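Problem statement: downstream parser choked on a complex file, so we are re-checking the raw output for the fe (ii) ion run. The parser issue turned out to be on our end (a line-ending mismatch), but while we're here, posting the original submission so the record is complete.
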Amino acid sequence: MLTSHRSGSHQDIRQFLESVIREDSKQGLFKVHRGVFTDREILRLEQELIFQHSWLYLGHNSEVARPNDFITRKVAGHPLLLTRDRDGKLHAYFNTCSHRGAMVCREPKGQRRAFYCSYHGWAYNDLGHLIDMPGRDSMAPGLIENGEMNLKEVPRLAEHHGFIFVCFDPEIPSLETYLAEAGDVLKLMSEHGPNGMEIVGGTHEYGLGANWKLIQENSADAYHTSTTHASYLEYVNARDGARPKVDPAVSAGWARDLGNGHAIIESEGAMPWGRPSARWVAGWGEAARAEIDEIREELIQRLGEKRGRFIALGDRNTLIFPNLVVNDTLAITVRTFYPADVDRVDVTGWALAPVGESASSRDRRMRNFVEFFGPAGFATPDDVEMLELCQEGYRNQTAYEWNDISRGMLKEVPAKSDELQMRVFWRQWQNMMLRNQED
Ligand code: FES
Ligand SMILES: [Fe+2]
């Protein structure tokens, strides 16, 4: 038995990490030890070895579209402040005052040329420069001028087709290199509308009692759709007109390894729901049909037959290592999640939509989005329950140590309902956990 009763020594953890994945490509077997979901030392190492050395999603360009727009957000435990300066350049600051540490910005978003710390009133401009403070005369000479007390910028900030990422490690390769083929998927997401894309509506924030990696597994798991989401599918079929039910035994679509731990599952036209851009279903009515045909035609005109049709008629769930999900199915959701504890995860989700789409199209999109992805929708509560059941089941680790993630392993092109995308995640996870450790 691969024991979780480890002594906690470095060597011991290294041995554990080396053996937590059992892969036999001849037999088509891939097993992950359940201790990775329950061991607090593993969580500590993930925070140190994965989250501090990966490019992490911070926000979307549209959320800071104008000069002096800002958003605040927590990324891997760091409270950050993202703002666009007077010249349009983006800055990601650690949201902490250089005086005695209070967060200099408390609001989730807004537009502001300067940030005033509410504790003692130190003021910073859009370039992060400390510009003033109450009782300046009593301060050491040069305290403002020498720049040492300016807001600190996150070591790396980069944007890819509207998606803004940060990284706390100054050494790792560029965002473009890191994203590998996932870069093209994000580009494809940016092409849904002729005028670009925007984050709309509010933010979904919810927590659940499961390990964070279970969200990554679940977010591109077509195998669970017809069981976990049976009631949603029944509802969609009843409301939108009968389309074939998704059968997990049917190998619809395919899965692709996008490199560096990123993966995607895709299909074209196989899923039963309507896509606002642009796959019509009967429940939307004849009036919507003409508009959806128009949206599809615009995509084809602008991007060519193949890419235009693929965007319009396809469905895709994308996993960007370690914790970004961009799912383009019945709406587009962008989702990140961070561990609050080994068995607790905090999830944040946003809807991404074409800038300037019609009110009727936006309405179809947001209904789909809230109904499926909303924390009180038809699907997310089902997922939450399943992941909490998994976490609870892991209490039986002495009886059952291994998860099986072998599905489709012997196929040349695994289907959407196979588990290639999870194996891609786990290999990268193990690589980083071993590679970044000091010997
Ligand atoms: S902590 Fe910010 S002004 Fe004192
Ligand atoms: Fe689900």
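For whoever reads this later: The chain has two domains: 56-176, 191-434.
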